[in-house]
Design goal:
eight-stranded mixed sheet, single chain, about 20% strand, binds iron/sulfur cluster, 2 domains, 9 helices, TIM Barrel
Length: about 375
């Protein structure tokens, strides 16, 4: 999530609104935050952003921003905090939007990039309003956490709101799948009849002990039951595997396990680890140079691909993959946390390569190198 900092005036609670640089009709203004390029303060808006303050300010909520105001585009949705911090919750011109609906979780994954909170404010009303303000042509929207299903009824309300306000949008739900072991819970979700819901669930290993060690909970069999419960209703499901030192050796066995037990899944993503949160704290236990698991990854990918399963590699760099795997590699890192390093400047694959997470700037494969000729790779 991008954030900007400004100086607040007349702001004593959080304000959510849609950014506009053009005047909107007065009766619609309460949902809009107007960027004023002069000292004019029009009435009726939820707030005004400006980079020049007028000599006199009335009671209108204002944030005076000096830097980066031009990063905000019409149709973006922002949350202004009383401190003047501006959080960009939705960007109209990207495919990377997601809503973090809770930071509570029933697992404690050793590489979790978003460590959990045990207490938090109820964000349901805010999230419903956020969804209602999004552009109706939004192509894809992520629902993430924490563990979104822990919200129970609020979780169903969020999915229903997405169906109501964004009927054309693909909803991509990231969940550990544990709560779907409860068939009643699955039925409540299915009853919503969301037209385009894709549920992605992690399976980190083919054994209960290894998976449970990674997620810090006894969830393996519940997640498996959850997958079968969802499959009963032909729910579109994907599997996600974050690769690190604790699970890379058994990637080929995991691929076999997936093929034999979950032939119904729509997609399988093998992912390089993002080094923030618990992954950063536990880096010594988790880090293996991704170059060193290429053989295991190649065996797993080829096994699944040969059996007509839809498989991808996320968050990887082409220069450390064997060429046979390039076609599976996707540009998957959200634009606001995606970087390319010096080696990339003259690389002839820079437009095809997904680059790195910004959090990897101090920890990435020592085999990254500029690609000058594709024939270097076999
Ligand atoms: S040098 Fe950079 S752009 Fe080229 S393949 Fe490697 S990471 Fe990608």
């Amino acid at each position: 999530m991008r954030s900007l900092a400004g100086y607040p005036f007349n702001i004593n609670k959080c304000i959510l609104g849609k950014v506009t640089t053009k005047q909107v009709l007065p009766f619609k203004r309460r949902n809009y935050i107007f960027i004023s390029t002069n000292c004019h303060i029009p009435s009726g808006y939820a707030a005004i952003l400006m980079n020049k303050l007028p000599s006199e300010v009335d009671l209108t909520p204002i944030v005076h921003i000096i830097q980066d105001i031009d990063h905000l585009k019409d149709g973006d949705i922002i949350l202004i905090e009383p401190s003047g911090q501006i959080n960009v919750l939705y960007e109209k011109n990207t495919y990377d939007n997601s809503i973090l609906v809770t930071q509570r979780c029933n697992c404690a994954c050793i590489m979790c990039p978003q460590p959990k909170l045990s207490n938090e404010y109820d964000q349901l009303d805010l999230n419903i309003k956020l969804i209602s303000l999004m552009d109706k042509n939004t192509k894809i929207l992520g629902i993430t956490g924490g563990e979104p299903t822990l919200l129970e009824n609020s979780f169903f309300e969020i999915i229903s709101a997405c169906k109501k306000y964004l009927p054309k949008t693909e909803l991509n739900l990231l969940t550990n799948g544990i709560n779907f072991h409860n068939l009643d819970f699955v039925q409540k979700l299915i009853k919503i009849k969301h037209p385009n819901l894709f549920i992605e669930i992690p399976i980190y290993a083919d054994t209960d002990s290894q998976h449970n060690k990674i997620i810090g909970a006894k969830g393996f069999y519940k997640t498996i039951q959850g997958l079968y419960n969802l499959a009963l209703f032909n729910q579109k499901i994907g599997l996600r595997i974050v690769i690190h030192k604790l699970n890379y050796e058994r990637l080929p066995q995991l691929a076999e396990f997936i093929y034999h037990n979950f032939p119904f899944v729509f997609h399988i993503a093998f992912m390089q680890m993002e080094i923030i949160g618990h992954a950063k704290e536990n880096i010594d236990e988790l880090w293996i140079d991704p170059y060193y698991y290429d053989n295991h990854l190649e065996t797993a990918i080829n096994y699944l691909n040969n059996r007509q399963m839809n498989v991808s590699i996320y968050n990887s760099q082409l220069c450390i993959l064997p060429k046979s795997l390039w076609k599976f590699s996707k540009k998957s890192i959200s634009s606001w946390k995606n970087i390319y390093i010096d080696e990339c400047t003259n690389c002839n694959q820079v437009n095809n390569c997904g680059g790195l997470f910004v959090s990897s700037i101090n920890k990435y494969s020592e085999y990254l190198k500029t690609i000058k000729f594709d024939t270097e790779f076999v």
